Request: fold
Amino acid sequence: MKVAVLIKQTPDTAELPKVSAQEVQSGAVKATMVINPWDEYAAEEAIQLGDRYGADSVAITMGASTATDALKHALAMGIGEAKLIDSSGVSGDMWTTASILAAAVRAEGDVDLVITGKQSVDENSSSVFIGVACKLGFPLAANVVRIVEIAGGRITVERMADGSQETVSLPLPAVISVGKEINDPRFPSFMGIRKANRASIPVVSVADLDTGELVKRTNWTNIRKPDEKTGACVIFDGATAAEKAAKLVDALVADKVL
Amino acid sequence: MSVLVWIEQSNNQAVPSCWETLGKARELADTLGTELAAAVMGSETAATAAAAGQYGADVVYAITSPLLSEYRLSAYVAGLEKAVQEAGATVLLVSATTRGRELSAATACRLDAGIAPDATDLRIEGGKLTAVRPVYSNNLLVDITFESDLQVASVRPRSFPMPAAGDAKAEVKELALGLGEEGIAEKILDVQPSDGAGADLADAQIVVAAGRGVATDPEKGFALVSELARAMGAAVGASRAAVDAGYVPYRYQVGQTGKTVRPDVYFAVGISGAIQHMAGIGGSKVIVAINRDADAPIFEKAAYGVVGDLYELLPALTAELKKRIG
Reply:
Protein backbone atom coordinates (compact mmCIF):
# COMPACT_ATOMS: atom_id res chain seq x y z
CA MET A 1 0.00 0.00 0.00
CA LYS A 2 1.24 3.47 -0.85
CA VAL A 3 0.14 6.71 0.79
CA ALA A 4 0.84 10.16 -0.67
CA VAL A 5 0.78 13.06 1.77
CA LEU A 6 0.22 16.49 0.23
CA ILE A 7 2.00 19.17 2.19
CA LYS A 8 2.14 22.90 1.89
CA GLN A 9 4.72 25.25 3.35
CA THR A 10 2.96 28.20 4.98
CA PRO A 11 3.88 31.15 7.19
CA ASP A 12 4.17 30.41 10.91
CA THR A 13 0.67 31.11 12.29
CA ALA A 14 2.03 33.62 14.81
CA GLU A 15 3.42 35.68 11.93
CA LEU A 16 0.29 35.70 9.75
CA PRO A 17 -0.82 39.18 10.94
CA LYS A 18 2.55 40.59 9.85
CA VAL A 19 2.20 39.37 6.25
CA SER A 20 1.53 42.43 4.09
CA ALA A 21 -0.70 42.72 1.04
CA GLN A 22 2.35 43.66 -1.06
CA GLU A 23 4.20 40.50 -0.02
CA VAL A 24 1.26 38.31 -1.04
CA GLN A 25 0.77 40.21 -4.30
CA SER A 26 4.42 39.77 -5.27
CA GLY A 27 4.63 36.22 -3.92
CA ALA A 28 7.62 37.12 -1.73
CA VAL A 29 6.24 36.48 1.75
CA LYS A 30 8.93 37.28 4.32
CA ALA A 31 7.50 35.38 7.32
CA THR A 32 9.16 32.33 8.87
CA MET A 33 7.90 29.41 6.81
CA VAL A 34 6.84 26.11 8.37
CA ILE A 35 4.93 22.98 7.41
CA ASN A 36 1.22 23.92 7.32
CA PRO A 37 0.12 22.89 10.84
CA TRP A 38 -2.87 20.91 9.51
CA ASP A 39 -0.57 18.90 7.25
CA GLU A 40 1.37 17.62 10.27
CA TYR A 41 -1.74 15.62 11.16
CA ALA A 42 -1.75 14.21 7.62
CA ALA A 43 1.93 13.24 7.86
CA GLU A 44 1.42 11.65 11.28
CA GLU A 45 -1.53 9.61 10.00
CA ALA A 46 0.52 8.36 7.03
CA ILE A 47 3.27 7.25 9.41
CA GLN A 48 0.72 5.46 11.59
CA LEU A 49 -0.65 3.70 8.48
CA GLY A 50 2.91 2.50 7.97
CA ASP A 51 2.77 0.93 11.44
CA ARG A 52 -0.75 -0.46 11.00
CA TYR A 53 -0.62 -1.69 7.41
CA GLY A 54 3.03 -1.49 6.36
CA ALA A 55 2.15 1.38 4.02
CA ASP A 56 4.91 3.24 2.20
CA SER A 57 4.61 7.00 2.36
CA VAL A 58 5.69 9.85 0.14
CA ALA A 59 5.30 13.55 0.94
CA ILE A 60 4.72 15.89 -1.99
CA THR A 61 4.96 19.67 -1.92
CA MET A 62 4.51 22.18 -4.67
CA GLY A 63 6.51 25.31 -4.04
CA ALA A 64 9.77 27.19 -4.30
CA SER A 65 13.09 25.45 -3.59
CA THR A 66 12.92 26.69 0.02
CA ALA A 67 9.79 24.55 0.52
CA THR A 68 12.10 21.54 1.02
CA ASP A 69 12.14 22.59 4.71
CA ALA A 70 8.50 21.48 5.05
CA LEU A 71 9.37 18.18 3.35
CA LYS A 72 12.36 17.71 5.65
CA HIS A 73 10.06 18.15 8.62
CA ALA A 74 7.86 15.35 7.25
CA LEU A 75 10.90 13.14 6.62
CA ALA A 76 12.17 13.83 10.13
CA MET A 77 8.79 12.76 11.51
CA GLY A 78 9.16 9.45 9.68
CA ILE A 79 7.71 9.81 6.18
CA GLY A 80 9.58 7.53 3.77
CA GLU A 81 10.21 9.73 0.75
CA ALA A 82 9.71 13.32 -0.37
CA LYS A 83 9.28 15.09 -3.70
CA LEU A 84 9.34 18.79 -4.43
CA ILE A 85 7.33 20.02 -7.40
CA ASP A 86 9.09 23.20 -8.50
CA SER A 87 6.41 25.85 -8.92
CA SER A 88 8.65 28.56 -10.34
CA GLY A 89 7.08 30.04 -13.44
CA VAL A 90 3.63 28.71 -12.59
CA SER A 91 1.05 31.48 -12.28
CA GLY A 92 -2.14 29.70 -11.50
CA ASP A 93 -5.03 29.32 -9.12
CA MET A 94 -6.09 26.47 -6.88
CA TRP A 95 -7.34 24.36 -9.78
CA THR A 96 -3.97 24.59 -11.52
CA THR A 97 -2.34 23.61 -8.21
CA ALA A 98 -4.79 20.70 -7.97
CA SER A 99 -3.96 19.60 -11.54
CA ILE A 100 -0.24 19.68 -10.80
CA LEU A 101 -0.56 17.80 -7.50
CA ALA A 102 -2.87 15.23 -9.11
CA ALA A 103 -0.30 14.68 -11.85
CA ALA A 104 2.42 14.31 -9.22
CA VAL A 105 0.36 11.66 -7.41
CA ARG A 106 -0.25 9.86 -10.71
CA ALA A 107 3.49 9.94 -11.39
CA GLU A 108 4.08 8.03 -8.13
CA GLY A 109 2.40 4.98 -9.62
CA ASP A 110 -0.01 2.96 -7.53
CA VAL A 111 -1.03 5.38 -4.81
CA ASP A 112 -3.87 3.91 -2.74
CA LEU A 113 -4.56 6.85 -0.50
CA VAL A 114 -3.90 10.60 -0.66
CA ILE A 115 -3.94 12.37 2.72
CA THR A 116 -3.79 16.08 3.40
CA GLY A 117 -4.68 18.59 6.12
CA LYS A 118 -8.17 20.02 6.05
CA GLN A 119 -6.99 23.52 5.14
CA SER A 120 -3.92 25.71 4.80
CA VAL A 121 -3.44 28.57 7.22
CA ASP A 122 -2.61 31.02 4.43
CA GLU A 123 -5.11 30.52 1.61
CA ASN A 124 -7.79 28.90 3.79
CA SER A 125 -9.61 27.55 0.74
CA SER A 126 -10.06 23.91 1.84
CA SER A 127 -10.49 23.33 -1.87
CA VAL A 128 -7.20 22.11 -3.35
CA PHE A 129 -7.66 18.54 -2.10
CA ILE A 130 -11.20 18.56 -3.53
CA GLY A 131 -9.68 19.53 -6.88
CA VAL A 132 -7.03 16.80 -6.53
CA ALA A 133 -9.75 14.18 -5.95
CA CYS A 134 -11.72 15.56 -8.90
CA LYS A 135 -8.72 15.58 -11.26
CA LEU A 136 -7.69 12.05 -10.19
CA GLY A 137 -11.27 10.79 -10.31
CA PHE A 138 -10.89 9.45 -6.74
CA PRO A 139 -13.68 9.54 -4.14
CA LEU A 140 -13.21 11.97 -1.27
CA ALA A 141 -13.86 12.08 2.46
CA ALA A 142 -13.11 15.46 4.05
CA ASN A 143 -12.51 16.27 7.71
CA VAL A 144 -11.69 12.72 8.74
CA VAL A 145 -11.18 12.25 12.48
CA ARG A 146 -10.41 8.50 12.48
CA ILE A 147 -9.37 5.85 9.99
CA VAL A 148 -11.36 2.87 11.20
CA GLU A 149 -10.06 0.29 8.78
CA ILE A 150 -8.46 -0.30 5.40
CA ALA A 151 -9.48 -3.69 4.03
CA GLY A 152 -10.83 -5.35 0.91
CA GLY A 153 -9.97 -2.44 -1.34
CA ARG A 154 -11.95 0.02 0.78
CA ILE A 155 -11.25 2.53 3.52
CA THR A 156 -13.68 3.17 6.36
CA VAL A 157 -13.38 6.52 8.12
CA GLU A 158 -15.20 8.64 10.66
CA ARG A 159 -15.68 12.22 9.55
CA MET A 160 -17.19 15.31 11.10
CA ALA A 161 -19.96 17.11 9.26
CA ASP A 162 -22.19 19.97 10.41
CA GLY A 163 -23.83 18.67 13.55
CA SER A 164 -23.02 14.99 13.03
CA GLN A 165 -20.28 12.41 12.85
CA GLU A 166 -20.49 9.94 9.98
CA THR A 167 -18.87 6.58 9.41
CA VAL A 168 -18.25 6.30 5.66
CA SER A 169 -16.73 3.62 3.50
CA LEU A 170 -15.00 4.53 0.22
CA PRO A 171 -13.37 2.40 -2.46
CA LEU A 172 -9.62 2.87 -2.86
CA PRO A 173 -7.83 4.74 -4.27
CA ALA A 174 -9.29 7.70 -2.39
CA VAL A 175 -8.46 11.17 -1.08
CA ILE A 176 -9.00 12.16 2.57
CA SER A 177 -8.44 15.39 4.43
CA VAL A 178 -7.86 15.16 8.17
CA GLY A 179 -8.84 17.27 11.17
CA LYS A 180 -6.87 17.74 14.35
CA GLU A 181 -8.92 15.18 16.31
CA ILE A 182 -7.29 12.37 14.32
CA ASN A 183 -3.93 12.15 16.14
CA ASP A 184 -1.17 13.98 18.01
CA PRO A 185 1.61 14.69 15.51
CA ARG A 186 4.97 13.55 16.86
CA PHE A 187 7.94 15.86 17.23
CA PRO A 188 10.77 14.83 14.92
CA SER A 189 13.41 12.86 16.79
CA PHE A 190 17.08 13.88 16.82
CA MET A 191 17.91 10.89 14.63
CA GLY A 192 15.02 11.76 12.33
CA ILE A 193 16.24 15.31 11.89
CA ARG A 194 19.76 14.10 11.10
CA LYS A 195 18.45 11.67 8.53
CA ALA A 196 16.17 14.29 6.96
CA ASN A 197 18.99 16.81 6.72
CA ARG A 198 21.14 14.29 4.83
CA ALA A 199 18.32 13.25 2.48
CA SER A 200 18.47 14.58 -1.04
CA ILE A 201 14.97 15.54 -2.12
CA PRO A 202 14.17 15.03 -5.80
CA VAL A 203 12.91 18.16 -7.56
CA VAL A 204 10.36 17.61 -10.32
CA SER A 205 9.56 20.32 -12.82
CA VAL A 206 5.92 20.94 -13.72
CA ALA A 207 6.80 20.50 -17.38
CA ASP A 208 7.79 16.89 -16.65
CA LEU A 209 4.35 16.07 -15.25
CA ASP A 210 1.32 15.06 -17.25
CA THR A 211 -0.86 17.91 -15.99
CA GLY A 212 -2.97 18.55 -19.06
CA GLU A 213 -3.57 22.17 -20.01
CA LEU A 214 -3.14 24.51 -17.05
CA VAL A 215 -5.75 27.26 -17.23
CA LYS A 216 -6.32 29.81 -14.53
CA ARG A 217 -10.01 30.35 -13.67
CA THR A 218 -9.73 33.00 -10.96
CA ASN A 219 -7.56 36.02 -10.20
CA TRP A 220 -6.62 37.62 -6.90
CA THR A 221 -6.85 41.41 -7.05
CA ASN A 222 -6.92 44.28 -4.59
CA ILE A 223 -5.26 42.37 -1.75
CA ARG A 224 -5.63 44.51 1.37
CA LYS A 225 -5.78 44.58 5.15
CA PRO A 226 -9.34 44.53 6.54
CA ASP A 227 -10.55 47.73 8.19
CA GLU A 228 -9.34 47.79 11.74
CA LYS A 229 -11.65 48.71 14.55
CA THR A 230 -11.38 52.42 15.16
CA GLY A 231 -11.82 53.98 18.55
CA ALA A 232 -10.73 52.82 21.93
CA CYS A 233 -12.50 50.23 24.01
CA VAL A 234 -15.15 51.68 26.30
CA ILE A 235 -14.56 50.26 29.76
CA PHE A 236 -17.57 50.17 32.06
CA ASP A 237 -16.72 50.80 35.65
CA GLY A 238 -18.88 50.66 38.73
CA ALA A 239 -18.91 50.01 42.44
CA THR A 240 -20.46 46.56 42.04
CA ALA A 241 -20.57 43.82 39.42
CA ALA A 242 -24.30 44.55 39.00
CA GLU A 243 -23.60 48.20 38.18
CA LYS A 244 -20.96 47.29 35.58
CA ALA A 245 -23.29 44.69 34.07
CA ALA A 246 -26.15 47.19 33.80
CA LYS A 247 -23.95 49.71 31.97
CA LEU A 248 -22.75 47.06 29.53
CA VAL A 249 -26.29 45.87 28.78
CA ASP A 250 -27.40 49.50 28.27
CA ALA A 251 -24.70 49.94 25.63
CA LEU A 252 -25.51 46.68 23.82
CA VAL A 253 -29.23 47.46 23.81
CA ALA A 254 -28.50 50.98 22.47
CA ASP A 255 -26.42 49.40 19.67
CA LYS A 256 -29.41 47.14 18.86
CA VAL A 257 -27.21 44.04 18.89
CA LEU A 258 -29.07 42.22 21.65
CA MET B 1 -28.77 32.53 -17.98
CA SER B 2 -29.46 32.47 -14.29
CA VAL B 3 -28.07 32.81 -10.82
CA LEU B 4 -28.44 29.44 -9.07
CA VAL B 5 -28.37 28.86 -5.31
CA TRP B 6 -28.14 25.44 -3.67
CA ILE B 7 -30.53 25.24 -0.74
CA GLU B 8 -29.00 22.66 1.58
CA GLN B 9 -31.27 20.40 3.57
CA SER B 10 -30.53 18.72 6.85
CA ASN B 11 -33.11 16.04 7.76
CA ASN B 12 -35.25 17.37 4.88
CA GLN B 13 -35.30 20.86 6.40
CA ALA B 14 -33.67 23.86 4.76
CA VAL B 15 -30.47 25.08 6.43
CA PRO B 16 -31.37 28.69 7.37
CA SER B 17 -28.13 30.38 6.26
CA CYS B 18 -29.01 29.36 2.66
CA TRP B 19 -31.82 31.95 2.71
CA GLU B 20 -29.26 34.69 3.41
CA THR B 21 -27.39 33.56 0.31
CA LEU B 22 -30.61 33.41 -1.71
CA GLY B 23 -31.51 36.95 -0.58
CA LYS B 24 -28.18 38.29 -1.84
CA ALA B 25 -28.50 36.22 -5.02
CA ARG B 26 -31.87 37.92 -5.74
CA GLU B 27 -30.06 41.25 -5.73
CA LEU B 28 -27.27 39.94 -8.02
CA ALA B 29 -29.78 38.36 -10.43
CA ASP B 30 -31.68 41.66 -10.62
CA THR B 31 -28.44 43.54 -11.37
CA LEU B 32 -27.56 41.00 -14.07
CA GLY B 33 -31.13 40.96 -15.37
CA THR B 34 -31.30 37.17 -15.11
CA GLU B 35 -33.56 34.65 -13.47
CA LEU B 36 -32.95 33.48 -9.88
CA ALA B 37 -33.03 29.69 -9.60
CA ALA B 38 -32.70 27.43 -6.57
CA ALA B 39 -31.63 23.79 -6.44
CA VAL B 40 -33.03 21.48 -3.75
CA MET B 41 -31.93 17.87 -3.30
CA GLY B 42 -33.06 15.18 -0.89
CA SER B 43 -35.46 12.32 -0.31
CA GLU B 44 -38.11 15.02 0.20
CA THR B 45 -37.90 18.44 -1.42
CA ALA B 46 -41.41 19.90 -1.64
CA ALA B 47 -41.44 22.03 1.52
CA THR B 48 -37.99 23.52 0.89
CA ALA B 49 -38.79 24.11 -2.79
CA ALA B 50 -41.92 26.05 -1.79
CA ALA B 51 -39.96 28.03 0.80
CA ALA B 52 -37.33 28.91 -1.85
CA GLY B 53 -40.12 30.60 -3.82
CA GLN B 54 -41.19 32.55 -0.74
CA TYR B 55 -37.61 33.73 -0.26
CA GLY B 56 -37.34 35.01 -3.82
CA ALA B 57 -36.45 32.21 -6.27
CA ASP B 58 -38.19 32.40 -9.68
CA VAL B 59 -37.69 28.74 -10.42
CA VAL B 60 -36.68 25.74 -8.32
CA TYR B 61 -34.94 22.65 -9.64
CA ALA B 62 -35.83 19.78 -7.34
CA ILE B 63 -34.07 16.44 -7.42
CA THR B 64 -35.97 14.03 -5.23
CA SER B 65 -34.53 10.58 -4.65
CA PRO B 66 -34.05 8.16 -1.77
CA LEU B 67 -30.40 8.02 -2.87
CA LEU B 68 -30.12 11.63 -1.67
CA SER B 69 -31.55 11.00 1.79
CA GLU B 70 -28.08 11.41 3.25
CA TYR B 71 -25.52 13.86 1.88
CA ARG B 72 -22.95 12.04 -0.21
CA LEU B 73 -20.59 14.16 -2.25
CA SER B 74 -20.53 12.15 -5.46
CA ALA B 75 -24.34 11.95 -5.65
CA TYR B 76 -24.86 15.61 -4.76
CA VAL B 77 -22.22 16.76 -7.26
CA ALA B 78 -24.04 14.82 -9.99
CA GLY B 79 -27.32 16.45 -8.96
CA LEU B 80 -25.99 19.98 -8.70
CA GLU B 81 -24.19 19.64 -12.03
CA LYS B 82 -27.55 18.79 -13.62
CA ALA B 83 -29.22 21.78 -12.01
CA VAL B 84 -26.43 24.10 -13.22
CA GLN B 85 -26.88 22.83 -16.76
CA GLU B 86 -30.70 22.97 -16.69
CA ALA B 87 -30.66 26.46 -15.22
CA GLY B 88 -27.97 27.66 -17.63
CA ALA B 89 -26.34 29.17 -14.55
CA THR B 90 -23.51 31.67 -14.88
CA VAL B 91 -23.34 32.19 -11.11
CA LEU B 92 -23.61 29.34 -8.58
CA LEU B 93 -23.80 30.24 -4.90
CA VAL B 94 -24.05 28.09 -1.78
CA SER B 95 -23.93 28.87 1.93
CA ALA B 96 -20.41 28.06 3.15
CA THR B 97 -21.41 25.32 5.57
CA THR B 98 -19.06 22.33 5.74
CA ARG B 99 -21.09 20.60 3.05
CA GLY B 100 -21.65 23.74 1.01
CA ARG B 101 -17.95 24.46 0.81
CA GLU B 102 -17.17 20.92 -0.27
CA LEU B 103 -20.01 20.58 -2.78
CA SER B 104 -19.42 23.96 -4.42
CA ALA B 105 -15.70 23.28 -4.87
CA ALA B 106 -16.29 19.80 -6.27
CA THR B 107 -18.99 21.05 -8.65
CA ALA B 108 -16.84 23.97 -9.78
CA CYS B 109 -13.89 21.69 -10.45
CA ARG B 110 -16.02 19.21 -12.37
CA LEU B 111 -17.41 22.02 -14.54
CA ASP B 112 -13.97 23.63 -14.94
CA ALA B 113 -15.21 26.80 -13.23
CA GLY B 114 -13.44 29.17 -10.88
CA ILE B 115 -14.51 29.34 -7.25
CA ALA B 116 -14.29 31.83 -4.41
CA PRO B 117 -14.52 29.80 -1.19
CA ASP B 118 -15.96 31.30 1.99
CA ALA B 119 -16.74 34.72 0.47
CA THR B 120 -17.94 37.51 2.75
CA ASP B 121 -19.16 39.92 0.06
CA LEU B 122 -20.33 39.68 -3.55
CA ARG B 123 -20.88 42.28 -6.25
CA ILE B 124 -21.35 42.53 -9.99
CA GLU B 125 -18.76 44.47 -11.99
CA GLY B 126 -19.02 44.69 -15.75
CA GLY B 127 -21.51 41.84 -15.86
CA LYS B 128 -19.17 39.51 -13.94
CA LEU B 129 -19.07 38.41 -10.33
CA THR B 130 -16.47 39.76 -7.92
CA ALA B 131 -16.24 37.95 -4.59
CA VAL B 132 -14.45 39.25 -1.51
CA ARG B 133 -12.85 36.67 0.73
CA PRO B 134 -10.62 36.74 3.79
CA VAL B 135 -7.29 34.93 3.46
CA TYR B 136 -4.27 34.46 5.72
CA SER B 137 -6.64 33.51 8.54
CA ASN B 138 -8.69 36.73 8.27
CA ASN B 139 -5.60 38.95 8.23
CA LEU B 140 -6.02 39.98 4.57
CA LEU B 141 -8.90 40.45 2.17
CA VAL B 142 -8.80 39.72 -1.55
CA ASP B 143 -11.16 40.32 -4.47
CA ILE B 144 -11.66 37.19 -6.55
CA THR B 145 -12.50 37.76 -10.22
CA PHE B 146 -13.36 35.02 -12.67
CA GLU B 147 -12.02 33.89 -16.05
CA SER B 148 -14.61 31.12 -16.45
CA ASP B 149 -18.18 31.55 -17.73
CA LEU B 150 -19.56 29.78 -14.66
CA GLN B 151 -18.62 31.65 -11.48
CA VAL B 152 -18.95 29.80 -8.18
CA ALA B 153 -18.78 31.09 -4.61
CA SER B 154 -19.56 29.71 -1.18
CA VAL B 155 -20.82 32.46 1.10
CA ARG B 156 -19.83 32.61 4.75
CA PRO B 157 -22.94 32.43 6.97
CA ARG B 158 -24.12 35.76 8.38
CA SER B 159 -22.45 37.79 5.63
CA PHE B 160 -25.84 38.99 4.41
CA PRO B 161 -29.11 39.70 6.21
CA MET B 162 -31.86 37.11 6.40
CA PRO B 163 -34.48 38.10 3.81
CA ALA B 164 -38.16 38.20 4.73
CA ALA B 165 -40.30 35.38 3.36
CA GLY B 166 -43.15 36.61 1.14
CA ASP B 167 -46.02 34.68 -0.40
CA ALA B 168 -44.49 34.32 -3.88
CA LYS B 169 -44.54 30.93 -5.56
CA ALA B 170 -41.74 29.58 -7.69
CA GLU B 171 -42.16 27.27 -10.63
CA VAL B 172 -40.84 23.87 -9.46
CA LYS B 173 -39.14 21.67 -12.05
CA GLU B 174 -38.29 18.10 -11.12
CA LEU B 175 -35.01 16.75 -12.45
CA ALA B 176 -33.92 13.12 -12.44
CA LEU B 177 -30.69 12.31 -10.60
CA GLY B 178 -29.75 9.87 -13.37
CA LEU B 179 -27.60 7.82 -11.01
CA GLY B 180 -28.08 4.47 -9.33
CA GLU B 181 -26.68 3.31 -5.98
CA GLU B 182 -23.93 1.50 -7.89
CA GLY B 183 -22.77 4.85 -9.27
CA ILE B 184 -22.23 6.36 -5.80
CA ALA B 185 -18.80 5.63 -4.33
CA GLU B 186 -19.52 6.47 -0.70
CA LYS B 187 -21.48 4.16 1.58
CA ILE B 188 -22.61 5.72 4.83
CA LEU B 189 -22.45 3.11 7.58
CA ASP B 190 -23.49 5.19 10.56
CA VAL B 191 -24.48 8.74 11.51
CA GLN B 192 -24.19 9.97 15.09
CA PRO B 193 -25.60 13.40 15.85
CA SER B 194 -23.10 15.52 17.78
CA ASP B 195 -24.54 17.91 20.36
CA GLY B 196 -24.69 20.65 17.75
CA ALA B 197 -22.26 22.97 19.51
CA GLY B 198 -20.05 23.20 16.44
CA ALA B 199 -22.80 23.80 13.90
CA ASP B 200 -24.47 26.42 16.09
CA LEU B 201 -21.31 28.45 16.58
CA ALA B 202 -20.68 29.49 12.99
CA ASP B 203 -24.29 30.67 12.58
CA ALA B 204 -24.78 32.23 16.00
CA GLN B 205 -25.87 35.86 16.38
CA ILE B 206 -24.37 35.95 19.84
CA VAL B 207 -21.41 33.93 21.10
CA VAL B 208 -20.15 33.72 24.67
CA ALA B 209 -16.68 32.19 24.76
CA ALA B 210 -14.39 31.50 27.68
CA GLY B 211 -10.66 31.04 27.95
CA ARG B 212 -7.90 30.43 30.42
CA GLY B 213 -9.52 32.95 32.77
CA VAL B 214 -11.82 30.21 34.07
CA ALA B 215 -8.80 28.15 35.21
CA THR B 216 -9.49 28.61 38.92
CA ASP B 217 -12.78 26.71 38.58
CA PRO B 218 -13.39 25.71 34.95
CA GLU B 219 -16.53 23.74 35.70
CA LYS B 220 -18.21 26.63 37.43
CA GLY B 221 -16.81 29.07 34.85
CA PHE B 222 -18.33 27.22 31.91
CA ALA B 223 -21.58 26.72 33.83
CA LEU B 224 -21.82 30.51 34.28
CA VAL B 225 -20.93 31.03 30.62
CA SER B 226 -23.68 28.59 29.60
CA GLU B 227 -26.24 30.34 31.81
CA LEU B 228 -25.38 33.69 30.28
CA ALA B 229 -25.56 32.17 26.80
CA ARG B 230 -28.95 30.62 27.55
CA ALA B 231 -30.33 33.94 28.74
CA MET B 232 -29.55 35.46 25.31
CA GLY B 233 -30.04 32.42 23.07
CA ALA B 234 -26.32 32.52 22.39
CA ALA B 235 -23.87 29.78 21.42
CA VAL B 236 -20.98 28.78 23.70
CA GLY B 237 -17.40 28.85 22.48
CA ALA B 238 -13.94 28.49 23.92
CA SER B 239 -10.38 29.57 23.24
CA ARG B 240 -7.72 27.09 22.27
CA ALA B 241 -6.21 27.40 25.75
CA ALA B 242 -9.50 26.29 27.31
CA VAL B 243 -9.82 23.38 24.87
CA ASP B 244 -6.19 22.30 25.31
CA ALA B 245 -6.69 22.36 29.07
CA GLY B 246 -9.58 19.93 28.59
CA TYR B 247 -12.35 22.18 29.94
CA VAL B 248 -14.53 21.59 26.85
CA PRO B 249 -14.18 19.48 23.67
CA TYR B 250 -12.51 20.72 20.48
CA ARG B 251 -15.78 21.41 18.69
CA TYR B 252 -16.22 24.49 20.91
CA GLN B 253 -12.91 25.98 19.79
CA VAL B 254 -13.00 29.40 18.16
CA GLY B 255 -9.96 30.78 16.37
CA GLN B 256 -7.50 30.01 13.65
CA THR B 257 -7.45 26.27 14.27
CA GLY B 258 -11.09 26.15 15.35
CA LYS B 259 -14.31 27.72 14.15
CA THR B 260 -14.59 31.11 12.49
CA VAL B 261 -17.53 33.06 13.91
CA ARG B 262 -19.09 36.36 12.91
CA PRO B 263 -21.78 37.13 15.44
CA ASP B 264 -23.37 40.49 16.24
CA VAL B 265 -21.88 40.26 19.71
CA TYR B 266 -18.89 38.19 20.82
CA PHE B 267 -18.31 37.95 24.55
CA ALA B 268 -14.67 37.07 25.25
CA VAL B 269 -14.67 35.93 28.87
CA GLY B 270 -11.25 35.45 30.42
CA ILE B 271 -9.70 35.34 26.94
CA SER B 272 -6.48 37.30 26.59
CA GLY B 273 -6.86 37.78 22.84
CA ALA B 274 -3.96 35.94 21.19
CA ILE B 275 -3.73 36.68 17.48
CA GLN B 276 -4.70 33.09 16.65
CA HIS B 277 -7.92 33.61 18.57
CA MET B 278 -8.59 37.01 17.00
CA ALA B 279 -8.27 35.41 13.54
CA GLY B 280 -11.49 33.50 14.22
CA ILE B 281 -13.58 36.39 15.53
CA GLY B 282 -12.59 39.27 13.25
CA GLY B 283 -16.00 39.37 11.59
CA SER B 284 -17.83 40.06 14.87
CA LYS B 285 -19.76 43.34 14.93
CA VAL B 286 -19.18 44.05 18.60
CA ILE B 287 -16.57 42.39 20.79
CA VAL B 288 -17.12 42.56 24.55
CA ALA B 289 -14.12 41.74 26.71
CA ILE B 290 -14.56 40.55 30.26
CA ASN B 291 -11.19 40.11 31.88
CA ARG B 292 -9.54 40.65 35.19
CA ASP B 293 -6.35 41.90 33.54
CA ALA B 294 -6.92 45.47 32.32
CA ASP B 295 -3.82 45.15 30.11
CA ALA B 296 -5.02 42.04 28.22
CA PRO B 297 -4.61 42.54 24.43
CA ILE B 298 -8.29 41.68 23.91
CA PHE B 299 -9.21 45.20 25.09
CA GLU B 300 -7.42 46.68 22.06
CA LYS B 301 -9.87 44.94 19.74
CA ALA B 302 -12.99 45.11 21.90
CA ALA B 303 -15.66 47.81 21.61
CA TYR B 304 -16.70 47.31 25.23
CA GLY B 305 -14.87 46.00 28.22
CA VAL B 306 -15.43 45.21 31.84
CA VAL B 307 -12.49 44.62 34.13
CA GLY B 308 -13.21 42.32 37.01
CA ASP B 309 -13.82 38.85 38.37
CA LEU B 310 -15.80 36.78 35.87
CA TYR B 311 -17.31 34.66 38.66
CA GLU B 312 -19.05 37.83 39.90
CA LEU B 313 -19.59 39.56 36.56
CA LEU B 314 -21.21 36.69 34.67
CA PRO B 315 -24.05 36.08 37.18
CA ALA B 316 -24.61 39.84 37.39
CA LEU B 317 -24.82 40.04 33.60
CA THR B 318 -27.19 37.07 33.40
CA ALA B 319 -29.43 38.61 36.06
CA GLU B 320 -29.43 41.98 34.29
CA LEU B 321 -30.33 40.40 30.94
CA LYS B 322 -33.14 38.34 32.43
CA LYS B 323 -34.50 41.56 33.96
CA ARG B 324 -34.42 43.35 30.57
CA ILE B 325 -35.36 40.71 28.05
CA GLY B 326 -37.17 38.21 30.22
